[in-house]
Amino acid sequence: MSLLARILRAAHCRSTHHYFAIDALQCVQTDKGRALADLLLTHYAGYLLGAKDPDTRFRDFQNHVVHVSDRHWGGAPKKAAHWADEAIECLDEECWEDAAYSIGVLSHYFTDPLMPLHTASSDAETVVHRPMEWSVCKSYEAIYSRWRDSQYQTVFPLTNKSSMLSGSDWVRDAVIQAAELSHPHYERLIEIYDLPAGVKSPPDGLNDESREILTDLFGFAITGTAQIIDRLANQTTAAIPPTSIALGTVIAAIQMPAAWVLKKIDSAKEKLAVAALFNEYQRTGTLTRHLPAEIKTVRSERAADTPAVSTKSETPQPATPSSGAAKITSVETKRIPQVPSLSESDDLVDAPSIGPKTAKRFEAIGIHTVGEFLSASPDEMVVKLATSWIDQQKLIDWQHQARLVTQVASLCGYKSQLLVAVGCTNASQLAEQDASSLTAQIKQFAGTSAGKRILRNTSAPPESEIRKWIEDASSTPVRKVA
After folding, report:
1. CB burial class (10 A; 0-12, 13-18, 19+) of residue 89?
2. How far apart are CA 475 and CA 258, in angstroms?
3. Which stretches within 236-366 are classed as H helix?
4. In this structure, what are the phi and psi dihedrals at residue 67, rounded to the nearest 5 degrees?
């Protein structure tokens, strides 16, 4: 493993998707693939950002799944193919940074269906989904080492019919193939997961059988991503230039302390979220307030696609849980209230437009949470920050963006950025908008350089989505204006 890869793993990998993206680079096989892998390491910031954006920025959780026994319901194959097309286009045009981002996003949509919980839906899964994924994340090194040191490593079989398809159809087929490889383990992983132990200490939720299953799936994820990178490198018409990674190594090393702090913040937040979920389930036998966002989104989208969707498992219910595993009864998930993705108690780093470096500037002046930021005076913050590029208007815009996301459930960071950019700055104003007119304004802004920076390689939201924003804003109980 290269020095830069080791530094990135230690300092900047904060999720399973980050680890998959970096570890896959060591498994590329072709000369062109290795050149592309070096390029991705050089542009590691965009590559790792893309690997996590589907969870943190897009939040399109219906596109993170392939429900195998439900006629392959889910948007992961289509999304993966879209981002493969984006990656090839960026490579052909020699837009290396954008290509790195696109390949990072593609890696997320490919590897998500290799988590069995993304291949079906059931009441039992609703309870264990978030705790189990956190257990997997906190056990990554142990499971990865088990695969790496195995005499018989699993390798994703992209050399089957997937490799013979043209365009981006091969990616679509590979995602379906990934889901079919992981789906047979769906019920067993749920059955043997020890929920109480996993809440107290995430790695303890996984027994040896779970780890054996996950070891094979890790191998599929890492080698499959590597083969995708190989194929993209050999599909592009551009000559991928040799890259010097010495400067990238220095940059990554300089940023290491801040990244370690951020990793600890993420870990603490996830631990609290899992504990809250478990406590609600133990107390009430249901999950409503702390139902994971991905579960809400997937069930909402499935309900929209079919007249009636049962919350029972798509495949036969698991057998009686083994000793030590949590007994999970039916979970009531009807009429789930929509909850905004951002709250005033969240760390400021989670707010729109504010990354880790900017958040540290605010920490230095005593502002740590979203609520503290929203209640602070822009005039006073400008003086205390003493930074030329953060002016009063920028702070006002950021406050508008953050407040929108705390009040309107269907909004996330970049969507609030689009709204504020076209002059829609609060939930009351959004509630009064005409969907067609607002869609036209956003579409026009999306064509500008500022709009393209916000959207990156994604499309402007369609009118149906914007209409949903307006509906949610209309039901917002509190709509204060700064």
Report:
1. middle
2. 39
3. 246-284, 293-305, 356-364
4. -85, 95
- Side-chain-side CA neighbours of 159 within 13 Å: the count stands at 5
Mapped onto helix, strand or coil, the DSSP state of residue 172 is: helix
369 Rama class: left (phi>0) / alpha (psi -120 to 50) / beta: beta
C-alpha span between 227 and 423 (Å, rounded): 45
Domain definitions of the chain by residue range:
3-270, 348-475
Q: Which CATH superfamily is domain 3-270 in?
A: P1 Nuclease (1.10.575.10)
Q: Look at the block and give the residue holding tokens 């013979």.
A: 164
List CB contacts of 106: < 8 A, sequence separation 6 or more: 50, 80, 83, 84, 86, 87, 171, 228
Q: What would the pLDDT profile of 27-36 be if each residue is shown by its tens digit?
A: 999 999 999 9
What is d(CA 271, CA 201) in angstroms, rounded to the nearest whole number?
9
What does residue 433 show for φ and ψ, rounded to 5 degrees? -75, 150
C-alpha distance from residue 377 to each of 321, 374, 383 (Å): 54, 8, 10
Distances from the Cα of 238 to the Cαs of 11, 120, 228, in angstroms?
Answer: 32, 40, 17
| SS3 per residue for 309-359 | CCCCCCCCCCCCCCCCCCCCCCCCCCCCCCCCCCCCCCEHHHCCCCCHHHH
How many CA atoms are closer than 13 Å to the CA of 135, on its beta-carbon side?
A: 27
Residue 245 to residues 24, 248, 475, Cα–Cα distance (Å): 17, 5, 51
Tell me the pTM.
Answer: 0.63
Helix residue ranges, H only, 183-207: 186-192, 195-200
Asked if residue 238 lies in contact with residue 94, where contact means CB atoms within 8 angstroms, the answer is yes
Q: Which of 144, 141, 41 is nearest to 100 (CA)?
A: 41
CB–CB of 427/476 below 8 Å? yes
| Size (the chain), residues | 482
Indicate if the pLDDT at residue 257 is higher than 70: no
Spatial contact of 219 and 211, defined as CB atoms under 8 Å apart? no
Written as six digits, the tokens of 463 are: 């009118």
Residue whose C-alpha is closest to residue 438's, from 424, 452, 427:
424
**Distance between CA atoms of residues 49 and 45, nearest Å:** 6
Residue 292 tokens, joined? 């994971």
CA distance 372 to 379: 15
210-248 pLDDT, tens per residue? 999 999 999 999 999 999 999 999 999 999 998 765 544
Query: Cα separations (Å) of 94 from 97, 241, 245, 382, 454?
Result: 9, 9, 18, 39, 21
